[in-house]
Amino acid sequence: MKPIPIWVFLILLFFLFQSTKSAELDAIDALVSFFEDLSGYFSISSPVSGWIRTSDPCKNNWTGIVCYDQTPSIKSITFESFNLSGTFKPNTICSIASLASSIVVISLNNNNLRGENLEAISNCKKLTHLYISRNQISGILPDSLSHLNNLKKLDISNNAFSGTLSSLPRISGLIEFIAQNNQLSGSIPEFDFSNLATFNVSNNNLSGPIPPGGDLFNATSYLGNPQLCGDPLPNLCETQRATPPSAAQNSSDPKKSGPSSVEILMYSGYVLVGLGLFFVIMIKLCKRKGTKKEELVEEGDYPRSKEEEEDASKTLTFASNEFRSIAMSKSEVFAGNSVESGPVSSSLIVLTSPEVNGLKFEELLKAPAELLGRGKYGSVYKVNCEEQGMTLAVKRIKDWSLPSNDFKLRMKRLNHVKHRNVLPVVAFYCSKQEKLLVYEYQPNGRTPTGQTFDWSSRLGVASTIAEALAFMHDELHRDSIPHGNLKSSNILFNKNMEPCISEYGLMAVDNSDNSPAIDIVNNTSQLNPDQIESGFRLDIHALGVILLELLTGKPSMVQNNGMDLAKWVVSVVKEEWTVEVFDRALIREGASEERMVNLLQIAIKCVDRSPESRPSINQIALMINNIKEEDERSMDVSESPFEIRN
């Protein structure tokens, strides 16, 4: 057999290369056409870059594009709050095989997009997240959505969709469905509600009974549909209003017109036993009040005298009369996705950590606790649970009026969103009087400052925090849950010295940049999209302040010539004395001035006085990561054993 000539292989390779190149060009052309449709065929300059047919979306870092690390293919397309006023045409990208088999996220929230036909979206088989809320998209909700077997999160709220929801339960992996403020009609089909973390169909034209399992979500998920009925809505369905057969039978049966003599004796016995127990309990409570009065800590977050303030900083008993009365009367258990009532000895509501499963609420109150600090929203204690061999950090929330049921739902939602650099709540306690959050204690404490914190470490912290915050914003944007209280004291270091964001989404939004005060936590249902968006922009401002602290080595609360840190830095940079703002330790270390200036420019954009001018968190994370990668490459070159000679 004669060997195949080499020119045959060359021809085959040539055609294969041409075919691959053609597919890449088709994908780029489709992406540019998709963006032109979104933008209304008008070119958008800042802050959008790339998106031209002569460049590569992955290599040239097109705005809004995220690619896979291993292969140069598109992973996500994100244009949130870009004021786009064109048309959403998913067919443009989902008809290209290379794009349809790689894109997992399309996020176009909060624009002015139109569009009527979403049938072609089903061709993007890998899609897991589709966010198109707060636009003007209309048309019938397509049945083809049910073909997206990988879809986990779907947000179509605040549009003009019509049609029914009949096909959606066939999406087996769906864990989040948000569709409020549309024109959807028909009945609610039987979703797997136990698998859903978020569900909202309020303000539509839906009718009929809420299906079994729907009462896992509160009434706010269904309000604004006058023809809906059943739990958890106050209006009952016709079948629920009918008199139960057993009740009708009892009322017509003369034999059941009154209690029997046996029943009277039985009930009398119950009354006597109850009175006896009542008197025994009252006697014990009176004795306990007399013997342990001095051991109890008086209720209230702030000591009223200097002596009390000094005592509060020492080891103390983490208990109060009110706490103990709550512990004796009520306890709740959270296991997996179910909430159950339990006796006094049952556990805290445990979310993540198996180590605290055996810890009882009363034991937590009695454990020795050290006051770590007080803040605007409450106090933090270090609690040593010696019997369990663990150390916990307990946050006692002050003046948070969020109802208990909403608080539990928020905890459940936050528990579904996890990032290795965001400190999770491992357990919590909730009642009308108290809200306690339990964390794993982080022994390395808060962000290190000063001369022991070198440039690479600071840049690593900036990159990690921005990436973690971007993840949380992406996952919780449609829930309107920003961090709300981001600051350097809420950046803790774990046992591996990795930075972790603590207290995410647990406080009302802190008005740190003098914007109009907003309480995102308590008033989400009453806010318009711009007000909700401002909460996330406040997080961007707070991140900018943290970046400035890393660059200057100064805390944000230190006054510089009568101004806070952000205003001081901006004023110095305007005077073209940029180098004056940097920490002297970084200058002595020989850190790259170019990369410090680049990070400083990002920080200044974050603290811009106009919230609308601040970059998105995804843009910030990408820019900081680019600086970090450039810094690492320069270190690799400087440490190379080979010397380049002329």
From TrEMBL:
PROSITE patterns: PROTEIN_KINASE_ATP, PROTEIN_KINASE_DOM. It is found in: Membrane. Residues 366-624 form the Protein kinase domain. GO terms for molecular function: ATP binding; protein kinase activity. Keywords: ATP-binding, Kinase, Leucine-rich repeat, Membrane, Nucleotide-binding, Repeat, Signal, Transferase, Transmembrane, Transmembrane helix. SUPFAM superfamilies: L domain-like, Protein kinase-like (PK-like). InterPro entries: Kinase-like_dom_sf, Leu-rich_rpt, LRR_dom_sf, LRR_N_plant-typ, PRK1-6/SRF4-like, Prot_kinase_dom, Protein_kinase_ATP_BS. One of its GO terms (cellular component) is membrane. ATP binds at K395. Residues 237-252 have a biased composition (Polar residues). Residues 1-22 form the signal peptide. Residues 234-258 are annotated as: Disordered. It holds the Pfam family Pkinase. The chain crosses the membrane at residues 264-283. This is Protein kinase, ATP binding site-containing protein. The lineage of its organism: Eukaryota, Viridiplantae, Streptophyta, Embryophyta, Tracheophyta.
